[in-house]
Specification:
disordered N terminus, 261 residues
Length: 261
C-alpha cells in the first residue's frame, strides 16, 4: 500500500500514520459519471520524486520518461484513510480525483488503465509512489477504481499504458477480423484483453494464435470520444471452455467469459 511521505516531498505528519486495514470508500454516494478522466497536459517534473529511493530494502529508480511504458499486473486502490494526506509530490491526496500511485513512473505523468476482465478503461494522473506489494503495478484513487469496477474485489488485472500530452490515445490502425465457424447457440467467447492501442491488441492476438488455443479475433469498438480493441477467443462450445480457460490461466492471461451473441 501507499506510503505517503516516501519521496520526502511532504512535511511532517499531523495525524496518525494511515492504516490500510481501516481504509475504505467515502461515506456518501458519488456520481461517477460527473467525474471525467484526467486530461494529459505538459507539467514540470517533481525533481525530488525523480531520485532513487528505498522501501523495505528494495531500491526503486524512477524513469526519466513515461514514453513507451506498458505493463500488465494487478491494480489496487486507496481511499478515505489516505484522503487529504500528502502525496509524494506534496499535493493532497483526493480519493475523488482521477489519480494514481506508481513506484517508478515520472511524477506527474499520465497513464491509461484498462481492466483486463471487463474492458473498462480510464486515464489517471500519477502523483504518488506505491504500491509496493509483489505483483501489484499501480494503486488507483477510489474514484478511478470505482470506474473500473475494482472496489468490491479490491484489486484486479489491468494493463497500464503511458499517455503523453499531445499524442493521440487511439491509433486508427486497421483491425483484422478473423472469421470463425458457427457453433451451437450456447457457445461463448473468452475475452483476453481490451486495449486503447490497436497495435497492442494485435500483438496479444498474434501471441494467442501461436498458442493455437482457439480462433482469435480483434473487435473494434470505436466512438467519437474513445476507441477500444477487444481480443477474444472463440466461439467456444461449452465442452471447450474449461480447457481453454485453464491454458490461458497457465499463461498468466486472465479471461472474461462473454456470450457469443
Amino acid at each position: 500500500m501507499l506510503i505517503a511521505l516516501l519521496a520526502g516531498c511532504a512535511g511532517p505528519a499531523t495525524r496518525p500514520a494511515p492504516d490500510y486495514r481501516r481504509d475504505g470508500p467515502p461515506s456518501g454516494a458519488i456520481n461517477l459519471d460527473a467525474i471525467p478522466d484526467a486530461m494529459p497536459r505538459a507539467e514540470p517534473p517533481c525533481r525530488p520524486c525523480s531520485r532513487p529511493y528505498q522501501f523495505e530494502g528494495v531500491t526503486y529508480r524512477p524513469l526519466a520518461s513515461a514514453a513507451g511504458y506498458e505493463i500488465r499486473g494487478i491494480a489496487s486502490w486507496y481511499g478515505r484513510e489516505f484522503h487529504g494526506r500528502a502525496t509524494s509530490n506534496g499535493e493532497s491526496y483526493d480519493m475523488l480525483a482521477m489519480t494514481a500511485a506508481h513506484p517508478t513512473l515520472p511524477i506527474p505523468s499520465y497513464v491509461r488503465v484498462t481492466h483486463l476482465g471487463n474492458g473498462r478503461s480510464v486515464v489517471v494522473r500519477v502523483n504518488d509512489r506505491g504500491p509496493f506489494k509483489r505483483g501489484r503495478v499501480i494503486d488507483l484513487s477510489y474514484v478511478a477504481a470505482a470506474k473500473l469496477g475494482l472496489i468490491g474485489p479490491g484489486s484486479g488485472p489491468v494493463e497500464v499504458r503511458a499517455v503523453l500530452p499531445g499524442v493521440p490515445n487511439f491509433p486508427t490502425a486497421p483491425v483484422t477480423q478473423v472469421a470463425t465457424a458457427p457453433v451451437g447457440g450456447d457457445a461463448v467467447f473468452l475475452q483476453v484483453g481490451a486495449f486503447g492501442d490497436a497495435a497492442a491488441a494485435q500483438r496479444l492476438a498474434a501471441r494467442l494464435r501461436q498458442e493455437n488455443l482457439a480462433p482469435v479475433a480483434v473487435q473494434a469498438d470505436n466512438t467519437a470520444s474513445r476507441g477500444l480493441h477487444r481480443v477474444r477467443l472463440g466461439p467456444l462450445a461449452p465442452r471447450q471452455f474449461d480447457t481453454v480457460a485453464a491454458r490461458l490461466a497457465a499463461l498468466g492471461l486472465p479471461a472474461l467469459r462473454v456470450p457469443a451473441n
